[in-house]
Every structure is written in C-alpha cells, then in structure tokens.
Design brief:
GO terms for molecular function: ATP binding; four-way junction DNA binding; four-way junction helicase activity. InterPro entries: DNA_helicase_Holl-junc_RuvA_I, Hlx-hairpin-Hlx_DNA-bd_motif, NA-bd_OB-fold, RuvA, RuvA_2-like, RuvA_C, RuvA_C_sf. Pfam families: HHH_5, RuvA_C, RuvA_N. By secondary structure, the chain is an alpha+beta fold. The protein has three domains: about 60 residues, Beta Barrel (OB fold (Dihydrolipoamide Acetyltransferase, E2P)), CATH 2.40.50; about 70 residues, Orthogonal Bundle (DNA polymerase, domain 1), CATH 1.10.150; about 50 residues, no CATH class. The chain is built from nine helices and five strands. A five-stranded mixed barrel has the order 1-2-3-5-4. Strand 4 and strand 5 form a beta hairpin. Helix 7 packs across helix 9 and helix 8 crosses helix 9. The relative contact order is 0.12.
Length: about 210
C-alpha cells in the first residue's frame, strides 16, 4: 500500500498530476490538480493505492482528512473512485461530512455525480461511521457552502462563463475543479470574459 508520495510536480492535467520520485513519474489522480502548482519544491500527496483487474491507480489528496473521507466514500455501493473524486472536488471534507451526518440531501445532490438515490445510500452507509475523526461539522459553515455551490453553478458571471466553456467542449468535472481553485481569487464584480480567461489559463496549465 502506497500511503503518500513526496516529490516535485512535473506535469499537470485536468484530473491528475505527475510527481517525480527518484527519476520515476507517478501519475496521481486528485480532486484539484491545480492545488499542486508546478514547482521544483517537493510536495507531499497522501495517496490511496487502488487495484482492480485492468488497472493499478493512485489517487492523491492534499490532506489526511481528504484521504480518509475518500476511503469512506468508496466503501459505499455505487460510489467509485471517480465519483468520490468529484465529491471532493466540489465540497470541503468537513462540509461533506456535515451534510452526511445531518442528512442534508440538498447539499449532497448538488455535488458532481450524486443523484438522490446515491445520496441516500451515502447517508445510510456512512452517517454513523464518521464520528471521532476530527471533522468540523458546524451547521452554519455547511449552510454557507450549500449556498456557494448553488450560486456558483446557477447564477452570476461564473454561471455564464461555465456554460460558454461547456459549449467549447469542457466537461463538468474539469470546470468544477477549475472553479474550486478559481473561486478564492476572483472579485465580486468579475466579468464573464475575465472569468473565462482565468479559467482557460488553468485549463491550459501543464
């Protein structure tokens, strides 16, 4: 089991990074590749080593918290690694855990790849398994993030920019990851054109 990998990021794509360790490049699929800027400085990525009949894959996370939650999520029937990555790309671990414990289906069904039935399975399987793991499950923070996810996708300049980028062929999962990185660096009066340019810069990174 590979628990973590440490080294410089030498390549970025929309859904993975390549980390160089002693001359070997490890492809690591991660919720937000752009969180690991290309740099000569070594970074630590906490990993989940996923083995199946046709592939051996590494999934990576910026924190132990994300790693733990990913491993819990893939225990749920119908939630594979790609869906679990989508969940972590759009919601903070603390907020996802709070939504599960509070049975907040409104929040969960706004996450990529999660419909009502999948949300119900996640709550049923994990509601009582997430205590004692150091989560900050403040209801006020969860409410704020529910509003943020809803507003980001449906309203404002990003909503228009997102639709325009989708028309260019970009997928929801790519745009979710870009926005996860971009939303902390934009102004309230940002224009659609400005957001598109910034998003495209991130999409072209690597």
């Amino acid at each position: 089991m590979i628990d973590f990998v440490r080294g410089p990021v030498v390549h970025l794509e929309a859904d993975y990074v390549v980390l160089e360790v002693q001359g070997i490049g490890y492809r690591i699929y991660t919720p937000n590749p752009y969180a690991f800027a290309k740099s000569e400085a070594a970074v630590t990525i906490y990993t989940h080593h996923h083995v199946r009949e046709d592939a051996i894959l590494l999934f990576g996370f910026a924190s132990r918290q994300e790693q733990k939650l990913f491993r819990r999520l893939i225990e749920v029937s119908g939630v594979g690694p790609k869906v679990a990555l989508g969940i972590l790309s759009a919601g903070k671990p603390d907020s996802v855990v709070a939504a599960i414990q509070q049975e907040n289906y409104s929040f969960l069904t706004k996450l990529p790849g999660i419909g009502k039935k999948t949300a119900q399975r996640i709550v049923l399987d994990l509601k009582d398994k997430l205590d004692g793991m150091g989560w900050d499950t403040d209801p006020g923070s969860l409410f704020a993030e529910v509003q943020t996810i809803e507003d980001d996708r449906e309203d404002g300049a990003w909503g228009e920019a997102r639709e325009a980028l989708k028309a260019l062929g970009y997928k929801d999962v790519e745009l979710d990851r870009v926005w996860n990185d971009l939303q902390h660096r934009v102004h309230a009066d940002e224009t659609v054109d400005s957001l598109m340019k910034k998003a495209l810069q991130l999409l072209f990174t690597g």
